[in-house]
Structure formats: C-alpha cells, structure tokens
Amino acid sequence: MKSRVIAITLGLAGLAALGSPASPEPPIPPGELNREELSNVDIFRKASPSVVNITNIASVRDFWSMDVQQIPRGSGTGFVWQDGYIVTNYHVVEDAAAVQVTLADQSVHDAEVLGAAPNKDIAVLRLKGRENDSKLHALPIGQSRGLLAGQKVLAIGNPFGLDHSLSVGVISALGREITSPGGRSIRDVIQTDAAINPGNSGGPLLDSQGRVIGMNSAIVSRTGAFAGIGFAIPVDTLRRLVPQLISRGRPIEAGIGFQPVPDNYVVRWGFEGVMVGRVFQGSPAERAGLKGVTVDRRGRVSEVGDLIVAVSGKKISGGDDLYHALDDIGVGGTARLTILRDEKRREVDVKLIELGNNRD
User: Fold this and answer.
1) Set 121, 163, 193, 236: catalytic member
2) Choosing from 75, 91, 163, 327, which is the catalytic residue?
C-alpha cells in the first residue's frame, strides 16, 4: 500500500477558530470524516499550541553608517518540552546573535540558547520571563525504542510563525545515519515519508497517540524541497540529553583522556582505527599505559602511537566510531579497548570519565 501524505495548513483565521486548549472546538459534522481523519485532526488540535516558530536573528553592520542592526536570517520550528523550555535543532539557532520565539497565540518573546549539543543537532531555549508558565503546555513524550517501519507518524511544523502545518505518513526505516552540524554522525535516526520542509526543522514527530517520538531534523533533496525522505532525531536521545543541556548547558561526553590523531593522517599512513596522538597526564588512558605519537626535535613523527581497533568487541574504523562506542558506554562505565602496538594486539580495560570543554 502506498503511504498517504496529508498536508494541512491553517492560516490566521484557522488558528483563531481553533483557539486555545481551553476554548471550545468547532464541531465536526458526523459522517464527513473517517476514523483516521478524526484522529489526525484531534492530535493536531491538541499538539499545535505547543509547537512554536523560532527566528534566528543576526547582527549586521551597516556599510554606510557602521551601525549594528539585527535582522532575521532564518527560521525554524520548536516545541515546548517543560516549564518554558523549548527544544529545537541546533542548526536552527546556530550562530544566532538573538533568538525570538512566536507562540501559537502570535505573541513574540525573546529567548536565550540555554544549551546545545551540536554533535546531536539539539538545542534548548529558555523563554525570557516565561519560566514555569502554566500556559505553555508540554507535549507528551513517548519513546523511540520499539518503533516499527510502517508505523503511522505525524510531523507538525510552524515555519513562518503565522500558521501550523501537519504532514502524515509512516516510518520508512529505522537506524539511519545523518551528519550533524558538529561534523559527527547522528545514528539510529528515524526515516519517514511525512513531508519535512526546511522551516519545519525542530518540530515534533508524533505517533498515533500524539506522543513525541522524534524531532524533525533534515530532508534528502537537491532542491531544498521535500522529496519523499525525511529524518528525525529519536526522542530517546532527547530524553537523555535535554536534561543535561538544561542543567549544564552542554552534554556529558565520555572519554578516556587522550587527543587522537586526525583520521585523514591515520588513513594516509595506511592504518585503520583511532591512533593515540597525545595522552593527558593523570588520565585513565595514561593509567592504562596507552602510548601516543613520538615526535623528534624537528617536529616529525618518529614513532606512531597505539591504534585503537575495537571497543568492547565493536570494530573501530575512525573517530566517529570511537565517539559513538564511548557514548553508548557512558561516564563511569568500563570500555575494553583492543590496541595494536608494533603489530601486536592486546586488550586493556579503561574506566570512562567526563571530558572537559578543552578535550577531544
């Protein structure tokens, strides 16, 4: 059966007709809509007041007067997570000098970027002066574990601040991978045929019960328009990282305390894996006896460092693989590293620590 995509756009008049969650909703004539359509309308009505428009504002210096002006340079979507906090994609607010949020009632509010995880394309905003506002209704949060291809999904966006849009489709595939603004891959991404256009980035992907199962993030297109393939970051990733971004402003990253050699050098030298470049003093890597690259007085590499080729039995081909392997284990866990040194393989157990801002 071909998937069916329904696009519904409500203008200002439509929003006024819907009203707030407490307002009476217009009746639907019996017999005109089937059960599935009634479900779609109900989910849209309940969820859309929690979906907001986000405007990224840049500071631009006027060529003639040299005055600094703030102008909109892009927009996207976000949704209420809890207590005045808005979740969106990092790329929606990347490099913003200021951020404005337009709510469903058309009120515009200043917001600050409270925390960001560029490697996961997630950002959290805080509405200024709207903390603990009971009028901001958080969407119910589901889980992405256990999702199935073919399952119905609904994508809601607020691309222009004037209306909401709804697209309905199915989960096309699971376990996909896309590249984040931070350059790392985002794994276990949800692929859907529900239309996701650029202005809908950061909006919620809902299941048939109206629960958030993902955050719409990207499309595959040569033109920038939807071409049948959209991607959403799984909500289980949001559930893990959003509390960290609210409390700390950045995600907790696990590591063992060393600086790796860039992947392109490792490949150029004919190796596959992650090569230890420099070991930080007092780190678990040092205590485990890992050896870094040796450099002579002229700054040339005289001896290569240890090569990490597997973590807890999972093959490591480069830095991205290591990043995800350690992230899966988490801070406080123990990673069994398979190391190559002088063509000899050995295994060492290393306890993971939290990386600081200045460590890779």
Assistant:
1) 121
2) 91
Residue 182 has a pLDDT of 82
Q: How many CB atoms lie within 10 A of CB 13?
A: 9
Q: What is the average pLDDT value for the chain, to the nearest integer?
A: 85
Q: How confident is the model at residue 8 (pLDDT cuts 50, 70, 90)?
A: very low
**221 noted as active-site residue:** no
pLDDT at residue 94 is higher than 70:
yes
Q: Which of 201, 217, 263, 283 is catalytic?
A: 201
**Which of 108-112, 188-192, 238-242, 353-357 shows the lowest per-residue confidence on average (mean pLDDT)?**
353-357
121 flagged as catalytic: yes
Is the pLDDT confidence value at 310 over 60?
yes
First to last CA, the chain: 47
Domains of the chain: 1-248 (2.40.10.120), 254-354 (2.30.42.10)
Alpha carbons 329 and 336: distance in angstroms, whole number: 10
* C-beta separation of 306 from 290 below 8 A: yes
Cα 162 from Cα 14, distance rounded (Å): 10
Chain centroid, CA 294 distance in Å: 38
201 belongs to the catalytic site:
yes
For 147, the token pair is: 């999702």
